[in-house]
Description:
Chains A, B, C, D, E, F: This is Germin-like protein. The structure is a homohexamer. The first copy, chain A, has helices at residues 3-13, 174-179, 185-192, 196-206, and strands at residues 51-52, 67-72, 86-92, 97-102, 108-114, 117-122, 129-134, 139-142, 148-152, 158-164, 172-173.
Amino acid sequence: MFLTILFTFALLFSSSHALQQDFCVADLSLSDTPSGYPCKKPSTVTVDDFVFSGLGVAGNTSNLIKAAVNLAFVAQFPGFNGLGLSMGRLDLAVDGVIPLHTHPEGSEVILVIEGTIRAGFISASTNVVYFKTLNKGDIMVFPQGLLHFQINSGKIPALAFVSLSSANPGIQVTGSALFANDLPTEVVAKVTFLDIAEVKKLKGILGGTN
Amino acid sequence: MFLTILFTFALLFSSSHALQQDFCVADLSLSDTPSGYPCKKPSTVTVDDFVFSGLGVAGNTSNLIKAAVNLAFVAQFPGFNGLGLSMGRLDLAVDGVIPLHTHPEGSEVILVIEGTIRAGFISASTNVVYFKTLNKGDIMVFPQGLLHFQINSGKIPALAFVSLSSANPGIQVTGSALFANDLPTEVVAKVTFLDIAEVKKLKGILGGTN
Amino acid sequence: MFLTILFTFALLFSSSHALQQDFCVADLSLSDTPSGYPCKKPSTVTVDDFVFSGLGVAGNTSNLIKAAVNLAFVAQFPGFNGLGLSMGRLDLAVDGVIPLHTHPEGSEVILVIEGTIRAGFISASTNVVYFKTLNKGDIMVFPQGLLHFQINSGKIPALAFVSLSSANPGIQVTGSALFANDLPTEVVAKVTFLDIAEVKKLKGILGGTN
Amino acid sequence: MFLTILFTFALLFSSSHALQQDFCVADLSLSDTPSGYPCKKPSTVTVDDFVFSGLGVAGNTSNLIKAAVNLAFVAQFPGFNGLGLSMGRLDLAVDGVIPLHTHPEGSEVILVIEGTIRAGFISASTNVVYFKTLNKGDIMVFPQGLLHFQINSGKIPALAFVSLSSANPGIQVTGSALFANDLPTEVVAKVTFLDIAEVKKLKGILGGTN
Amino acid sequence: MFLTILFTFALLFSSSHALQQDFCVADLSLSDTPSGYPCKKPSTVTVDDFVFSGLGVAGNTSNLIKAAVNLAFVAQFPGFNGLGLSMGRLDLAVDGVIPLHTHPEGSEVILVIEGTIRAGFISASTNVVYFKTLNKGDIMVFPQGLLHFQINSGKIPALAFVSLSSANPGIQVTGSALFANDLPTEVVAKVTFLDIAEVKKLKGILGGTN
Amino acid sequence: MFLTILFTFALLFSSSHALQQDFCVADLSLSDTPSGYPCKKPSTVTVDDFVFSGLGVAGNTSNLIKAAVNLAFVAQFPGFNGLGLSMGRLDLAVDGVIPLHTHPEGSEVILVIEGTIRAGFISASTNVVYFKTLNKGDIMVFPQGLLHFQINSGKIPALAFVSLSSANPGIQVTGSALFANDLPTEVVAKVTFLDIAEVKKLKGILGGTN
């Protein structure tokens, strides 16, 4: 019954690339563009391009922040390319913290699966802090580009998943941006009003120079 | 130190609404627009506008699909307004199914928390089915507007959370669209090639008329 | 008079690709991107890249749906690339039907040129059907991603043209998506509530397997 | 079967405006926004909000340009609001012309239904003219914001329909912009290099002053 | 000549709001939306809605940062609404500094008019610093959401103007976000790794509490 | 302290292209796309990709318009790619003029640095002229795609800088579009209502043919 109409479509689409527009799995071997990566040839796409298991594994929290972040951005999961979505997994040991950071290119929502997390973000125009303790099953949004953080405020390890509104939202960790590069100490002090000694100390810890 | 610059900002922003642009919590009492709802006055916004607990509660699966869907779209969680994100919770009892549906306005990613789920979507241009069994911790994407479904394929109840790339992505359940309204039986049959008897039977079950 | 300013521009634009931004005719030999195809070199573009005659030819309606669809999407007409537009021609013999389908990536407007067409779409959130008989010169919109259909309800052949809000809006024909692939019969039945026998029958007709 | 899931949706959507997001018929009584007009209450929307018959009527070409333009932009057809589409009807008597103009907010495609039309647009960066005679059934695209025109080049009246990539693309007719307002004659001459006498003559014809 | 076509337009546009779409001057008395403010009635718009003189006045740099920022965002200049642009004026006395900050909603370009400015931004993914001394006439871009700063590195006062890619890009000054609100000292320390004493000192200077 | 989290990121990002998303400096050697040029490899990007000095040089105004335009669009300054911004410098000698033109792809804001400039734009729907004399420090916006112009109305040379809301907004100079190409004289006359003699004269001056 549909054979003819299907044939018509097939004919019209023959030697076309229209299939790619149902989805656009990233071909990471090609140059990125402002809208995302060029698409992998649809004939080579399989269901495994749309499924990712990397978030099923707990991160190693044996570190000084007692936390780990596992990402499923377009670089890790090319199936997100062009779809305006990405994800991440947060493992926080007791006293674990996800340090202050922003996502320059996307908004975030966090879902608490286990434990208790104190999370907050800071308004840009008023510096008001929106800060609350989240329990299992709670979700909280962090608007695009605003500083935010998460802290395990409970007595057991916490597990949470985050979803973001871009396939590649970026992460700028304030501490790393200030203290893990070669930005001269006096410049860091001047633009942040921190003491020189404090800046030097943190550069030492984070491997910054100058 | 910052007092002066802060004062300068305050002065410039006085009697302005610029604060609203950090975020735009929906005022559902006003008319929606193509870009989302008008913003609630920022002075009335609290942290509770950014936190939602409705997904922490299991849905009632004592029904014929043995499944329940809990939504956190802008209508349920106004904090999502303008941020390009929404969420949902899927509870699937043993043999439960989320029937065939699309999200006209957004792409989706599913995260399996408990159990085993067979999920799939269908390509528009080729009708190819991308279909796989997902285990705990797996994520899978469903590109915008494409038909997809989820089935509990395990021996225990399944729990999953979905995130979508719009604050109000919509849900069109194919069965409800065909059999739960007053679209005349002969029209349904003509545009779907189903038998009249089959259409009448499903209209009876779903409360459709004509 | 303008010679100097023109020269200035020429100088500044020398060895630049800025010309491409007036338009971006698709180079279908390159990989698609989330925003569309890379642009053909402007020096090779002629007026024929902006003109398409394929919709001037009636489609063959000697088939079981008594209808034909001719597309002018980016794959057929590369001049649409990046412009947010595409078109199609619908020929419906007496009793012809364009089966239930969606366009995942675009909204549609239909213009009736000859005959009488019953057209409708179904709301996602309420399942309300918006359904009307269109006469010559009438236009009707079908919002993005919503199920819709067209039926020749007159006594003469009908001709209509559709315009869509994307260069590659896609077409998902519900019947083909369900019955023209290898999605297992029991899965189709489970996600649609159709009888196994009905599914098998339609798979037979449409060439589906499993 | 679906009753429960439907009930669940209904419950969640109660007292929500989520229905509006399937579509957003313009409420022209409210202030426009950068994304379009606020939406009419969905409960008051009927199929007639999605159907427009104004393009079925031929325009009166008994005028000096021997042509008429009928618009179906959001102001005439509120159903287009938010959908990224609009339309227009062009009637050109023998020797009729649609004068040089641009659409600041959208691209256009023209479809010739009757007669023969010479149409063209001018590239911005190179001033190259893309100019061709179109016959019945031909379509031609005019990229956003570029100067274009249409002339009846046949021996019979011509009829064409245009579709545009915005619900409100705007129309700037160059001649009207220069000669139908109070922009001082010497300014018009200075910015166009036309003779004062020519400017005065055309202001007289078009009702311009100063 | 154009009278008829003009009349036709007038007729079609009568009692419409289509004029508003040429521009959308913000009506700050109405609620903002995700796409910007609703538009002022076009009949009340004058040329003064499109002109702003507030950047012509030097800011007062007699403060501890020896700098001043004057904004022309939508709140100060409603004519920018919906146009994807805003501006600001930077006055930096000798040794003046614009502290570390981000614009969550837009990219920035700076133009140096007088003096010498050391400006830089920090990459999110690699923490690489892009840092250079700018002279009169130089421009430099700061991509959306990335931390950046400007310092007067010359022996005379510096003047610069910035343009941003949003009518309301926002400004988040890192120091103010951390030290000018009631975010508890131990939380600030925990998410930034600063010493408690340092946090208390800066809170004292900036008026923060807790 | 951050070393571990940094290491985690590094690990996840290894062999990824995620760095490119902080910015996307144009690789002009590759084909443009509807969203802009593909990105230069981030490892080859230096601060000089984000700084441009070409606007620091006065243009040569010894020409018939007594004005010069220097552009910093993506073709001249690849650092703007994907950021939604571009700039230009206008030098106007006494009596200099920037002729009537549009930017098909972007809105513009002008900032007067020296002298006095009469600037204006013309509304599309109403042909109303928004026209004013700008002094040093004034800014004025020109909405996307609308005809506008600038004239030195003072007794000294004028200098201004413009910013636009696209990396490649385009420039269509009305006079050049009409009189600097091979569009037949009778066609130009027919679509503009100018006299044949006037068209021929201007074609002669601007180098047009036919």
